[in-house]
Design brief:
The chain is of the alpha+beta class. The protein is about 55% helix and about 10% strand. The chain has a four-stranded antiparallel sheet with strand order 1-2-3-4, with no helix packed on it.
Length: about 525
């Protein structure tokens, strides 16, 4: 057989090994091992004809084979799943030009105290600290996974004094020293791309951990903002409750004076006293909720509740930013959770390559060199040099189904993460739609509640004037007072809902992060 024929055969064989068809990942794509031959897209076609055994002429084709095998990978190349993107948002948005959030999106609320709280959370929150540690762990795994791509080098040395029996005529025993300093190297030829795929999986996992860190940071930032606004809303609720209680107590004092001079009845006094008691009883629960909100803020910023103090404030001092989100097509590059889901998918795809490569033989090269001598003064002489070179090939034959099981596990894991990625994408679009609807609806509700407060306050003021003029009784006053209290309380609640809806939209848009 000519060198040309041998080269052609070797090249064809290497192409058969490297040019593997992609495996099926969808239902019905599962394949099985049939007979004694792998029929799972692994490219094994049985043994060679004995006539094709390479002799001396095969050396001419070795370089060709090595070039093909060096680029071998036995797994599918990653392709981003195609998911249809909506052309626009269902909820009407601002007519202003599209503007994505900035990296310090919380500053648009105009609250220096919120800015300080988020700054403290970014530096001291325990969830963020754990996420940062996970990033370091993943980066270390990349270093570990990179190591098999380069040869390992070890140095060792031994010194021994031995006494040995010599079984020869006139023999006896011999005592001598043995000094061996040696350097050894080993390397696994990555023909099938297993080590490269392992490193690719580690790199993708490290990217996923970085995206996870951003997701955790965004979650903490939005939690701080929402909890801070809740605390302010409770302070507003407490102010409304205390103001109403003070007004009711003043009315009760007036009725008590009127009763003493006979211009009102004891029933009117009793009814107003009941109103005062009801308003007073509503204050402790609000104080408890405020304390719980402050304690939650303390944990978010990494402090103990006993050392945390929050300056008094009101929701009325918080600005309400206007947002004009961009088109849905730009959202996927701005959501760290979507990027994390895709990084996990990329890592799983690389794991499939690793699992497929395990079916093929591994080739290890080892070399060692050094000196050996019975005396230190002759140790480094040329005659004391020693070396060894070796190559080993290991082909898996039977492992109780472990290799095939790992391969199927990797495929199933990819299918699972593919579903997770699809869910992350469509959930991102759903989150934005929900947040846009909440911002739109709470804005409309806030305007209506403001009108309700203005009307209730006007009615209460008129009832007070008419009561003192003697044209209405106390029941009418109590009714308008209760209506005013309810309207003011509802307005504080809708202010909170409005601000939290804006925070939710910032969160749904990925904060200020972009890939």
């Amino acid at each position: 057989m000519t060198d040309t024929h041998i080269a052609t055969n070797l090249t064809t064989a290497s192409r058969a090994l490297c040019g593997l068809r992609p495996h099926g990942l969808l239902p019905g794509g599962d394949r099985r091992l049939r007979g004694s031959r792998l029929d799972d897209g692994l490219g094994m076609r049985g043994g060679r004809d004995p006539k094709d055994r390479a002799g001396g002429a095969a050396a001419a084709a070795t370089a060709t084979l090595a070039l093909w095998l060096a680029a071998c990978t036995v797994g599918p190349a990653y392709r981003r799943p195609s998911i249809p993107v909506p052309s626009g948002w269902s909820t009407p948005t601002e007519p202003a030009p599209a503007a994505w959030p900035s990296s310090d999106w919380w500053r648009s609320f105009g609250s220096p105290q919120l800015d300080e709280l988020i700054r403290e959370a970014e530096s001291a929150n325990d969830d963020i600290g754990a996420a940062i540690a996970r990033v370091h762990e993943a980066e270390a795994q990349v270093t570990v996974a990179t190591a098999p791509l380069v040869p390992t080098l070890d140095a060792n040395g031994t010194a021994a004094r031995q006494r040995q029996f010599i079984p020869l005529p006139g023999g006896g025993t011999q005592t001598y020293n043995d000094f061996i300093p040696e350097v050894s190297a080993s390397y696994e030829l990555d023909f099938w791309g297993k080590n490269r795929a392992t490193r690719a999986a580690a790199v993708a996992a490290a990217n996923a951990s970085r995206f996870d860190r951003v997701t955790v940071e965004l979650t903490v930032e939005t939690s701080v903002a929402n909890t801070y606004f809740t605390a302010l809303e409770l302070e507003d609720q407490l102010k409304v409750a205390r103001d109403n209680l003070a007004s009711a107590e003043e009315t009760l004092r007036g009725l008590t004076t009127d009763e003493s001079v006979g211009t009102t009845t004891s029933l009117d006094v009793a009814q107003q006293a009941a109103e005062v008691a009801t308003l007073s009883a509503g204050i402790p629960p609000l104080e408890q909720q405020l304390q719980q909100a402050m304690d939650a803020l303390a944990v978010l910023v990494g402090k103990t509740p006993q050392t945390f103090k929050l300056a008094p404030g009101t929701l009325a001092a918080i600005s309400q930013p206007r947002l004009a989100p961009g088109l849905p097509s730009g959202l996927l590059a701005r959501r760290p959770d979507v990027a994390e889901a895709e990084a996990d998918l990329i890592a799983a795809n690389a794991d499939i390559q690793v699992a497929r490569a395990t079916f093929f033989p591994s080739i290890d090269l080892t070399a060692a060199g050094g000196y050996e001598s019975t005396a230190l003064e002759t140790l480094l002489e040329p005659g004391s040099r020693i070396f060894s070179l070796a190559a080993g090939l290991t082909q898996p034959i039977f492992h109780g189904g472990a290799i095939l099981g790992q391969y199927r596990l990797s495929k199933a894991r990819y299918a699972e993460l593919l579903s997770d990625y699809h869910k992350a994408v469509i959930s991102a679009f759903g989150n934005v739609e929900d947040a846009l609807a909440a911002v739109h609806d709470t804005g409309d509700q806030q305007e209506r509640e403001q009108r309700a407060v203005d009307t209730a306050r006007q009615a209460y003021q008129l009832s007070q004037a008419q009561f003192h003029a003697g044209t209405i009784n106390i029941l009418t006053v109590l009714s308008t007072e209760t209506a005013l209290f309810s309207a003011e309380s509802a307005f504080a609640q809708v202010q909170l809902a409005r601000l939290q809806a804006l925070v939710g939209l910032f969160n749904a848009l990925g904060g200020g992060w972009k890939q």
